[in-house]
Amino acid sequence: MRRELGSNSVSKQERLRFESLAILLEAQHDNADARMRHCREAAGILRQLIGRIEAAERQAARPRFVSQVI
Description:
By secondary structure, the protein is mostly helical. The chain is built from one helix and no strands.
């Protein structure tokens, strides 16, 4: 449906359609925010895991001194 620029006449149906679109866009935005938060949390968990793996590898690479008791 095409309207001339400057026309102030908008039907009730069009207003409802615009309102529905606005609600859908807000919901998409909220979902994107939630997904972004979850992705950040997951990235943080992965970085912690990588840090623990690297620490374990460093620990395993250290020479071990065994004292001999005779």
